[in-house]
Amino acid sequence: MSDTVPELLRLNDRVTLLPIIHGSGQFAWLTRRFMLEHNFDCLAVPLPPSFQQPVEEAVLELPRPSIVLQHPASQSTFEPPLPFNPELSAEEYGESADEDADPLPSSYVPIDPCQSVIMAIRAAMGEHIPRHFIDLETNHFQPFSTVMPDAHAVRHVAIEKFAAAILPSIPPPSDELTRDRMHYMAAQLTELEKIYQRILLVTSILHWPWIRDAHRLLRTDQGRSVDDLENEEVSTPTRHKINSKTLLFLFGELPFITSLHERARAELEDDENLQIDGVKELLIAGRQSYLDDLGNRARKITPLLLSKCLQYIRNLSLINRRMTPDMVTIITACKQVLGDQFALHVTEVATKYAYADEPGANSDQWIPESDQPITLGIDQARLPNQDVVSLVNRLPGPPISWQTIQLQRRPNDKERHEWQHNWNPYSQCSYPPEDERIELLRNRVSERAQAIMGQDLARTEKFTTSVKDGIDIRDTIRHWYEKEIYVKVMPPSRGQLDACLMLFDSPADPRDYPWRTTWFAEHEWESTLAFFASDFQQEMVGPGIGLGIYGGAMFLYPPVPIRDIWRDRRLNFTETLEERLIAAACMHSRSKHVAIMSPLPPGGGWKRLARRFKKHL
Q: Region annotation Disordered: residue ranges (predicted)?
């Protein structure tokens, strides 16, 4: 072992320290590779012995995640009020009364596939390598963490060089308990040296230099032995399931990225580049979810847009001095490049773990309290008995800063059912902001159609005193030998367009658009509107707010009173929804032309239908 393990990682010929960053999928991959490249006959785990049985049982259930929780041995924090003492000031009395008033937080070990320590235990159990948990038993665990370099660097830099580079910036432990833990683990390693020949300790890179120092002091008989440090009385840790919706608070990586690591492990795929390629897969999965949910309403998410989004993610990561993006960076880029709805679907996909137990599968079945999952939050958890406890991680990664991003969430089925139940089917109205937007669209389509009509009357002439409607480059080059400039003259279009058709889904399936009606203008700036759309009562998006999807619409502006085109017997000769709209527009239009916007140009049948009313599309 001494010939292959780098000198910087060896305590002596029998003990190797592997410095890692907790909660990093890149370091978990590095840990597995390191254990495959070198032979060890013992794994030292930086956790107390009381955690060994529940942690190893939980590791056997991976990829199903769980949490091993240890409450302080004494949960009672009630102390009788101090008797009044006139010699104490108000400040001293308050300090004495409030001292130790807060309960000690419970400590936990996340059974996360992307935790390096969990990966080491998992690999050791698979190879039948003995495991020894060597940390000090404590009730009041104090995490020791700080801001660390991006773990992506270890893909290109050897671990010993990475550790040596950040060694000058590693602060010494600031509290006595952490220093005692370093001395205790060093002393436990000296005891294991008497039994095993090749020992591996996977520990935080922040603990690595101080364990080396404590071990060096022990070799010179200046350190503290196991007998000098006392283990506290602790409660028995318990293993719990996790509410799948709160796995984001348990995992060091995004749940989706963690799923990719487990999939690669199960299918024997290469997972070396998942930290980067996983972001691409996340966007592709988010796009599929987005298209499945919105259908025809979804905007086209082209490869070009995805590449722009990835470029934006990279730039934001570099601004934040990171090489790999975090969740806030990904969602911010998706929101600003592809819109709120796409960002919402990416968020939902990113927080889903493929191997988690889905809640609500047996909602009517009684579940014992011991089997009920706990719900995690920011440094706290709600237990099955509904108690809320503070939490501290025994495998802490770099500090996390929580940020708020404004996204309009989708209502759940319960809310939609309640809104649908309270809906009054005998009264409805359109949403004024949406009315304004569709009127602006109608105005734009009409202007564009009038411009197309005027193109047939365009002509060119020699430049004299004005460039008119712009220089005609084609005719200028054609007559270059004349040394003259030709300009375009666009005469105003003749006539007006009072009918406008918009076909969003053609050919339209009548079963998808059962809502067919004609709306009259509420004021002089609105059009007479006839349309076919989906049933808004089937998609409630808010209390008293339903969402309908246009299949096609006809606008008459200035508004005129007409019969309901869906009940007008004069239009019964039409066969499809689009033909009925076209026939109604041609019948009620007072101009010779009807503007039409559709995915495809009008075919011969539609043109013949327009000629029946002496109109042109």
A: 73-104
Neighbour order of strands in the sheet with 595-597: 515-519, 528-533, 550-556, 499-503, 595-597
Indicate whether 361 pLDDT > 50. Answer: no
Same domain? For 181 and 274 the reply is no
Do 313 and 329 contact (CB within 8 A), yes or no? yes
Q: Which residues pair with 239 in a beta bridge?
A: 68
Answer whether residue 591 shows pLDDT above 90: no
Percentage, residues of the chain above pLDDT 70: 91
State whether 198 and 301 are in the same domain: no
Does residue 572 surpass a pLDDT of 60?
Answer: yes
H-state helical runs in 193-301: 208-219, 255-267, 274-294
Task: Please tell me the pTM assigned to this model.
Answer: 0.78
pLDDT digits (tens, 9 = 90+) for 51-67: 999 999 999 998 999 99
Token pair recorded at residue 115: 């935790």
380 DSSP β-pair partners: 377, 390
Residue type, 330: I
What value does the mean pLDDT of the chain take?
85
- Same domain for 149 and 277, yes or no, is no
What's the CA dihedral at 76, 179, 229, 110 to 10 degrees?
50
| Contact assessment for residue 114 and residue 28, using Cβ atoms and an 8 Å cutoff | yes
Question: In terms of residue numbers, what domain contains 65?
Answer: 7-244
Residue 533's identity, in one-letter code, is A
Peptide bond preceding 507: is omega within 30 degrees of 0, i.e. cis? yes
Amino acid letter, residue 545: I
Q: If residue 391 lies in a helix (H) or strand (E), which one and from where to where?
A: strand 388-393
3-class state of residue 73 by DSSP: coil
Here the tokens at position 461 are 């002439």
Tokens at 529, concatenated: 């509107």
